[in-house]
Design goal:
By secondary structure, the chain is an alpha/beta fold. The chain has helices at about 25-50, 60-70, 80-90, 110-125, 135-150, 165-185, 190, 210-220, 240-250, 275-285, 355-360, 380-390, 390-415, 440-455, 485-515, and strands at about 160, 200-205, 225-230, 255-265, 290, 315-320, 335, 420, 425-430, 465, 470-475.
Length: about 525
């Protein structure tokens, strides 16, 4: 059989690779500018023309659009035609930067962060070893030192950038588990594997803690049932009395509580656990204290609310997300430890990547304190943002959004909505209550319909959740461009549409009861 060698022959003149890669050539520079300018045009037009956070396109139509634009040709297409398809994707995406996109913990990314993304992508470094990212490695280290100072950790603390709260919470539980296995069972889990006695290990957290505590326990071989949930008080904080009771019960059962997770900014409420009380409890019962400050960690720069993070420095490990209230593009988070020696629990040397001789020479290879190998230069985003704005203005933005949430809560009460709580951060839970029917299921259906209605109209993106068995709507107000006047308009619209739904649904209920 004679092989077909037609495609194996390399003919430099037959291929035009030059324009598709960054290099000093004229073709590369021209193509790069064309692509960037076209991209800027699409985004700029969306920000001007997008008077709603979502187009309102229905599910089937968006699937059809996706099938159409993802057809990949054999031969390349002209930029104009490709960008028309990309424009369709952008047009029907959720526009997080719009002030009326206030459903989840998604922040509008600041322009410096977006600009930094282009530099990060163009450099395309991986921050796992120093030789791949010489300047970036030390920039990350210095940015982390700034936050370590803000936390009020001592000099022997350390940190690493992560993809976000899920990875950071996982790392907190991982280090705590490995330390517990050494402490209680004299087992180096990295070398010897998982000891059978580890089935006795238990983690405590509040019933409002992030689901990643249970998820991490499951992934770490402890099982989600190893997580003991503690009741919360009327401020939606971890209840210290119940925590003490649970700890005593665990000891009576010959189980080993080894970690407690405090939350500084719960997803639904923004509530912040009493860090001082939990730190004292952790000290008494010899627990690893992890603080999930993915949301509330931005209060480090707040002028008015910084005190809410007092005693954060007592934590053995901390999660902070920069793609929440730090206004950074996804993904961008960090994980901190009080004692840098804690990272020894995940240290592994690979001869080709981070040989032991590097450590002896003082060379920093970030893979040694991360569960990631390939790692982005996300520190550049928060650095550019803080340098351009300054920490004073940054603190003003954080305080503004929290104050706006408090004023929105007051407006909701004035319009006779059922408001679940006083906001601590930016999250506000509320629900529409029917005037004439005292029926919890009926109220739940109206609130579900309200969330669906406004999402489909594209004018207001709210979230929904369940508390105490009832459906609530949620506003997560992270956008500093939002205003009280805009929220007044939204609340009036929600009330009007709620009444219309109540009338329609009430008629259906009445008609059903007559026929029944």
């Amino acid at each position: 059989m004679i092989a077909n060698t037609a495609h194996n022959h390399i003919d430099d003149s037959a291929w035009d690779f030059e324009q598709w890669f960054l290099h000093p050539g004229e073709q590369s520079t021209k193509k790069f500018r064309e692509l960037i300018e076209s991209t800027v045009s699409i985004i700029a037009n969306q920000s001007v023309e997008g008077n709603r956070p979502f187009s309102g396109i229905v599910h089937d139509d968006i699937k059809a659009m996706a099938r159409c634009v993802t057809r990949v040709p054999i031969n390349g297409q002209e930029l104009e035609y490709v960008m028309k398809d990309i424009h369709e994707v952008v047009k029907h995406s959720l526009w997080i930067s719009h002030p009326s996109a206030i459903a989840h913990l998604h922040c509008p990314p600041m322009l410096p962060s977006i600009a930094a993304e282009m530099i990060i992508a163009a450099l395309n470094q991986s921050l796992d070893s120093w030789d791949q990212s010489p300047a970036a490695t030390h920039v990350e280290e210095e940015v982390l030192k700034h936050f370590i100072t803000k936390i009020s950790y001592y000099l022997h603390a350390d940190g690493v950038f992560t993809s976000g709260g899920t990875q950071s919470n996982y790392m907190g539980m991982l280090l705590a588990r490995n330390q517990a296995c050494e402490t209680y069972f004299s087992v180096n889990i990295q070398q010897d594997g998982f000891p059978a006695e580890a089935s006795r290990l238990r983690i405590l957290c509040s019933d409002h803690a992030h689901f990643t505590v249970q998820q991490s326990a499951a992934q770490l071989g402890l099982g989600s049932n190893s997580v003991i949930t503690v009741k919360t008080n009327d401020q939606q904080q971890l209840c210290l009395a119940d925590a003490k009771e649970k700890l005593e019960q665990l000891h009576e059962q010959d189980l080993i509580p080894f970690a407690i997770v405090a939350t500084a900014g719960t997803t639904d409420f923004g509530s912040i656990d009493n860090l001082k009380e939990i730190a004292d409890l952790a000290d008494t019962y010899r627990l690893w204290m992890h603080v999930d400050a993915a949301y509330g960690g931005a209060l480090l720069f707040s002028h008015q609310y910084r005190y809410l993070l007092d005693y954060l420095w007592e934590a053995d490990s901390i999660t902070i997300d920069f793609h929440k209230l730090y206004f950074q593009s996804i993904s961008c988070g960090a994980f901190f430890v009080k004692d840098k020696q804690s990272f020894q629990h995940i240290l592994y040397h690979a001869d080709y990547l981070n040989p032991e001789e590097d450590q002896e020479k003082g060379i920093v290879n970030l893979v040694e304190k991360s569960t990631q190998t390939t790692k982005r230069f996300d520190a550049l985003k928060i650095l550019m943002s803080l340098k351009l704005l300054g920490t004073d203005q940054f603190g003003n933005m954080i305080d503004y959004t929290i104050d706006l949430a408090k004023k929105t809560q007051q407006l909701l009460r004035q319009h006779h909505f059922d408001v679940f709580h006083e906001p601590v951060l930016n999250a506000v839970l509320f629900r529409y209550l029917p005037e004439n029917l005292d029926d919890a299921c009926f109220a739940d259906e109206i609130n579900r319909e309200l969330q669906r209605h406004f999402y489909q109209s594209g004018e207001l993106i709210m979230a929904k959740t369940v508390q105490n068995g009832n459906v609530y709507l949620k506003l997560t107000m992270l956008n500093p461009l939002n205003t009280v006047d805009k929220m007044k308009g939204h609340i009036e619209n929600i009330k009007q549409i709620g009444k219309e739904i109540e009338t329609e649904k009430g008629g259906e209920v009445y008609e059903y009861s007559i026929h029944y």
